[in-house]
Predict the structure of aspartate transaminase.
Amino acid sequence: MQLSQRLRGINGGGSDGWDVFLKARKMIAAGEDVTELTIGEHDIGTAAPVLREMYDTALAGNTGYAAVPGIEALREAVAARVSARTGVPTTSANVLITPGGQSALYSAHIAALDAGDTGLIIDPFYATYPYTVRAAGATPVSIGARAADAFQPRAEAIAARAPGAKSLLINSPNNPTGVVYSRTTLEGIAQVCTDHDLWLISDEVYDTQVWEGAHISPRSLPGMAERTLVVGSLSKSHAMTGSRCGWLVGPEEAITDLISLATNITYGVPGFIQLAGLFALRQGEAFEAEISEPFRRRRQLAHDVLAGQNAVAMVPAQGAMYLMLDVRATGLSGEGFANDLLDTHRIAVMPGESFGEAASGHIRVAMTVADDVFVTALRRLCAHAETLAAA
């Protein structure tokens, strides 16, 4: 028996970008001491009160089938949060609760694309983006954002690839670069979407992690609410990565049809998870700030470490829990440097090439270990880069 072309084609016949990460995990499994600066996994874990709510609500009987669109109280809470943050009137009818942000991303592309369509993505991109488009039966086309522009995508570059496309996926604050898209950037993107009748899929899972500037949801720009699907999640904002509780916000008609999709692929999110998510959202902005504070602090620590050397340059880290570091002065690719750093110093980072061609010669560093461990690893990384650059 032969598997479907859609399934076999998800990875496009090549690497999925996780090679260095998997290599590091094998080393750890073999007993080696590796400092992992690879994935966006909080070192603090989910807060105990949220876990207690999850436990208590499960014991109270919320372990059966939950409403597929999401329990109404959670949909209303997400809608209220979105309304308050963006100024766009939003109701529960605009919200679908999903098993994490990745499920929302897939659902959004199923909504926007037919088999054989083209879905645009900005390069650098989160590692799953092209594969999500392929999983929807469509063809991903990447549009490079330039390091010289601090990875702010240019509207004219998007417009050049827009004819014939059906959707555009963006992410701000951005993973992997840490860049927050400016209003000028987003207005340019909105104009391209309007001119070429594109769905805009906006991944906003890092909206609580903004260190410079302000997060602007493109759904709030004139004429964009009816053509924008917004991906959100409790994973990053509330340190609930393993709970798999996210959402998709969009036009009511789209959400109605997406509920039919959810009925047939996930059948909803467990009730006790949703109720814990509702509890977490009700803790308010102070709780979210507490979750994000370690990354704000470590960003400043990184500035201090990097200020004393010339071999590594940092892309302006305006948001999210990552640093994008330019290591081209070493003469190595991002992948070459990441492998060499892992082999030599047992420090694991993600190669820029895992996130597209535009990030070649860069590495992504996750700020997800204790401050002292983070500083020590960064100093060793910089010293290693200086040695290579001087060779």
Q: What stands out?
A: The two ends are 54 Å apart (CA to CA). DSSP finds 14 helices and twelve strands in the chain. The chain has a mean pLDDT of 96. The longest strand covers residues 118-123.
